[in-house]
Amino acid sequence: MSVMKSIRDTVAPVHPEGYVFLAAFIVVTLFLGWLWSPLFWIGAIATGWCAYFFRDPVRVIPLRADLVVAPADGRVCFVGAALPPADLGLGAEELPRLSIFMSVFDCHVNRAPIEGRVARISYRPGAFLNADLDKASEDNERNGVIIETPAGHQFGVVQIAGFIARRIVCFTHEGALLSAGDRFGLIRFGSRVDVYFPAGTPIVVGLDSRCVAGETVIARLGVEEPARQFRKN
202: domain CATH number? Predict the structure, then answer.
């Protein structure tokens, strides 16, 4: 029993969205092994990678209403002001935006950055450019979730499909109540998440920072502070 508990505590479970893929990998692996035994090990490695990609680890989420946490694992690839897509309904002025690029090695389960009500969900079909490119925010397939906090602040969280990703999954619905860190979606195989903040929100992470969904604090509400400076070392 203690051995099984230890395994559960150290190996992240597979998200249900990955079950069908994992089953397919297992079937193909067994078939390859039947054809030629060395191919079994190639398939086994690929199956292990599939389980790793669809992992859904437990996260330790800070419980403070003024903290905004990262919606995705990955690397910060943009920090600055940007015009939100018109379909989000966030206005025609530039807003602070943070973009997180998820490689195929990052966990792809997306989490709510802040507590609030889902005021709008807007899906838009589009291209499949490299998600690391800035123009992917406008041109790629995307799904936007607008979260309105109890104080009336609106955050736009946009799931963006990448060059490899061909499927955006959204678990939530309009009117749903989310807590910070709640799972709300998933993007398959390399992608990006943009966050549009209310005007004047200070972002507290820098370009190329690594984020952990639900844990890394990316901004603070109700605080006025100059833009932070960062350096690589």
Answer: 2.70.70
In a domain, 231, yes or no: no
Query: Picking from 76-85, 146-155, 159-168, 211-220, which range would have the lowest pLDDT averaged per residue?
Result: 159-168
The closest of 141, 173, 145, 147 to 160, measured between CA atoms, is 141
The whole domain housing 44 covers: 2-53
> Do 157 and 148 touch, CB atoms closer than 8 A?
no
Structure tokens at 106: 């990052």
Q: Which two tokens stand for residue 140?
A: 């790629």
> Considering 53, 77, 92, which residue would you say is the last residue of a domain?
53
Note whether 117 and 176 are within 8 A (CB).
yes
Task: Tell the residue number behind the tokens 């992240």, with chain if given.
Answer: 12
> Residues 31, 97: one domain?
no
pLDDT exceeds 60 at position 230: yes
Residues with a known catalytic role? 191
